[in-house]
Amino acid sequence: MDASNSSASAVKKPTGFRRLVKETLTQLAILLATLAVTEVALRVIDFRDLRDGYGRGYPLVFKHDPELGWAPIPNSRGEFHGSRTISLAHNSLGLRDVELGPDARPTILVIGDSLVWGYDAEASERFTELLRQELPSTHIVNAGVPGYGTDQEYLLLRRIWDTVRPDVVILVFCTSNDRDDNTSNLRYGGYLKPYLAQAPDGEWRFAGQPVPWSRFAYFNENALVHNSWVARAAVSAFVQLRYPAVTVPDPTERLVGMMRDFVEAHAAKFLVGLQLREPQIESFLQTQNIRYTWFDGAQSYDGMHWTPEGHAVVASRLLQLLQSAEIADVPRDARRAK
Q: What are the tens digits of pLDDT across the range 33-81?
């Protein structure tokens, strides 16, 4: 190769490299501009699916939990906006309740969903607080979590049992939506959860665990997705494709039976309160000799969540149930000796 050809090659190489860099930067600029325009467009259009579950106090309540699907953040405080704005304070267990400590009094654990947690109610207005006033010699624990089905409530009961060690467990069953909660792995527009299903061998097992991150978990807990609507759209598409909705035959009665069996196996009593009367669940409870009451007529804000007056009705009905079961104000040792 002569000197002239060598010189020409030396000139062409940097020119080609500069062209490659220029084209790469141009494509990158186009990509960034496209993302920026898309980001602005998504924010202006304000798609409901990209904002629902974000803000309004939900991050304090719906933090991802691989066993339960979601759970309130322990020791968190803030505000929650439903039909009205309420203040929140969760204890070290993530329960919207006072901090638990050694207590010699008989313990009544109330478990359920937002009805128990107190959606639209200040803590002092809830029926569990009213029961505390009526039953000062009894330790009342509120273990409600918004959105939970009976399946998640059963798993939560097992998780906190050794800490609470209740003498009585009251399940508050939401007839408006608990059956829907119990038959699906996906609720409230994007929250993944565990579910009870019957396996081919006939055994009943919990499926969907560990629970994958829901798209709303990414919205609330991942910094990039939290701040970028383009990222939210991408995550939403990924989660919906990777974890499609699953529907199973209604296991509600089996779940209630499992909860009763677990409670009684630990020498405690099991009672049920029904948001509204429902023949199917009532027939099961009667057949199983499970004592129950119902809260028909309790005033609500939205057809479901009780007003302070509604909570007063619930407290009164539960007090009657406890008394009929010979539980209220009965000393621990005397009751367990029966």
A: 887 877 777 777 777 777 765 557 888 899 999 999 999 999 999 999 8
Contact assessment for residue 318 and residue 131, using Cβ atoms and an 8 Å cutoff: yes
SS3 content of the chain, % helix, strand, coil (to 5): 45, 15, 35
Report the predicted TM-score, pTM, of the whole model to 2 decimal places. 0.87
Token match 């009526």: residue? 134
Fold of 94-211+246-332: Rossmann fold (3.40.50)
CB 254 within 8 A of CB 248: no
Based on its alpha-carbon atoms, the radius of gyration of the chain, rounded to whole angstroms, reads 27
- Which residues are within 8 A (CB) of 337 and not within 5 positions of it... i.e. 6 or more apart? none
- Give dist(CA 4, CA 7) in Å, integer: 5
In order of 82, 90, 95, 334, the CA distances from 85 in angstroms are 6, 16, 19, 43
Cα 31–Cα 33–Cα 38 angle in degrees, nearest 5 = 95
Q: What are the sequence ranges of the domains in the chain?
A: 3-45, 94-211+246-332
**In terms of Cα–Cα distance, which of 268, 320, 269, 270 is closest to 294?**
320
Residue type, 286: Q
Q: What is the DSSP letter of 245?
A: -
Whether 164 and 98 have beta carbons less than 8 Å apart is answered as no
Under DSSP, the state recorded for 306 is B
